[in-house]
Amino acid sequence: DYLKDLGVTATWLTPPLENNQPLYSYHGYAITNHYALDPRIGDNEQYRLYVDESHKRGMQVVFDVVLNHVGDQHAFIRDLPSADWLNQWDGFTRTNYRTSALVDMYASPSDRERMTNGWFDTQMPDLNQRNPLVAKYLIQWCIWWIEEMQIDAFRLDTYSYADQDFLTEWAIAINNEYPGFTEFAEVWVNGKGVQGYYNGNNNLKTGVNTHLDGVLDFDLYWGIIKSITEPFGWEQGTGNLYLRLVQDYMYGDNGGAGNVTFLGNHDIDRFYSMAGEDIQKYKIGVTLLLTLRGIPQWFYGDEVLLTNFANPMDTVRVDFPGGWKADASNKFAAAGRTATEQEAFQHVRKLANWRKTHPVFADGKTMHYVPENNIYVYFRYNDDYSVMVLVNTSDEWKPVETKRFNTSLAGYTKARSVIDETVITDLSVLQVAPMSAMVIELE
Question: How many C-alpha atoms does 312 have within 13 Å on its Cβ side?
Fold first, then answer.
């Protein structure tokens, strides 16, 4: 109920399956039983109840799938069905983590092989999806979870580390069985060209169609981070964000609309820390996330300004404060939040709930204008509705003359602020506060 009130429409847990491993088993990415929930969090019946209760609240459930590897305590690792069930080496060989090698026209065969066949970690044996029995096992496992639990989408972990021919076969099999089912992948790279390669129906003419709906948009993430941490410039600040969005043509006719966008997750620094614990910069980032193209993903606790850097990783994966009698504070309730935390919570809640009631963010269009003088302006619109967003990353008020936006403002004479609900009756010059984002509905 807390999540629904916040504006959340779906939930994604890291893999909830059994991870009966002696080390680092809490995160879920070293599966030891593909068909049983980890007993530390419940059982299959309770998971189905979680799905059912989510659906009753109008919320969908995303299941985190790991096709690349398993935990070394898995039954079929302790007693291998065949030697080629895994990608085997003479000695332990770690992946080079270089997704770029797979799309690099100059890459050596050894770099490509090490990327896909190297092990992710010492406790995570690398599955050989070129073995047809392994491929069938993984496909049938995923179909079982859709059918048995009625989940709504897959998030594909470490996508680019698995065999691409298999991944395409997997997606086709899932889509044939469940047309319209959503699949998006983690492709952790910084660069539109590499990221776009893995988006289904891209415009890169590579001959590869992954049949995915989208990818986790690390490229846009870095654009947002740079917008609030760098001074404005041709390729800095919002100028950098603009140039990244310019390259959305690589994704195909739909641009990056199917990508899952984010400000944080369990592997990276907390967003409020990245914003220098500056509430104004934080609010700009939230506004960009919730008004730009893509499907926003929110990391638990960022709405109440949890902080820390992912070094070590555990520091960004702390329990949410509240829910247990022994907790020193309860951030689930307004009374347990500081004034700044409440300001952040309300900003997220207002924009998220507003966004989900306006179809323009799901199927509308985007038009943006070249950033000038610390101001970046874009519109989200369709035939019946238009929203204007003005981002000011300077430390002073900016009067913005709107004549250059006439194409987008034609037919509109006034506006209403989504944030504070003030009415603007003169659109000729808009005053944008220092280090802020103005969001207005045009009328």
Answer: 3
CA atoms within 13 A on the CB side of 14: 17
Enumerate the domain spans of the chain: 2-363, 365-442
Q: Same fold for the domain at 2-363 and the one at 365-442?
A: no
Cα 19 to Cα 33, 123, 308, distances in angstroms? 7, 11, 26
The answer for 282, left when phi > 0, alpha when psi is -120 to 50, beta otherwise, is alpha
Class of domain 365-442: mainly beta
Distance separating alpha carbons of residues 419 and 158, to the nearest angstrom: 37
Across 160-256, where does the E strand assignment appear? Answer: 182-185, 214-215
Architecture in CATH of 2-363: Alpha-Beta Barrel (3.20)
Q: Which residues contact 252 (CB under 8 A, 6 or more apart)?
A: 199, 200, 201, 202, 203
Q: Please list the active-site residues.
A: 157, 186
pLDDT in tens, 325-356: 999 999 999 999 999 999 999 999 999 999 99
Q: Which pTM was predicted?
A: 0.97
| Cβ 358 vs Cβ 405: under 8 Å | no
Q: 83-110, pLDDT tens digit by residue?
A: 999 999 999 999 999 999 999 999 999 9
How far, CA to CA in Å, does 170 sit from each of 15, 204, 211, 352? 18, 22, 9, 33
